[in-house]
Amino acid sequence: MLTQGYRKFEWKQILSGENPKIAYQPETSLNLSGTIKTLSNKPVANGRVRLTSIKDHFAEDTVTDANGNFTFKNMNLYDTTKVIINAKKANGGDNVKISIKKPSYPAVQKTPVPVNSLNADIPESVLAAMKTDQYRWTEFKKHYSIKRS
Fold this sequence. Notes:
This protein is of the alpha+beta class. About 15% of the residues lie in helices and about 30% in strands.
């Protein structure tokens, strides 16, 4: 988990069985949303939209709302799947523009963490032993910054 940047957890809390609150649930399926408009930028109400993935043998249909919006929900496709989207007006005309909405992701907050920092309670006995061996203590301080919590 450290290779993915996850560092903020409290061992005392975890060992006591107290689980931290999960802010974001993992994704279980894919959703795709978009809008269908005429060439004059008017929304296409009750338009028919088809999403097809030939490689995955998958096809799904939906109908747009009054504002021309459509959504395909709970699709179980690979994250690199290529799809084809076709759309038609309610009267069968296919002279339309298809716009796909970019998904929104939660903001990432970057917390600066010094390289080789050690954020742990180091027992005094260990610190004392390291200080007695001056060479090891000097080498340790060269590579790690110690922060007391």
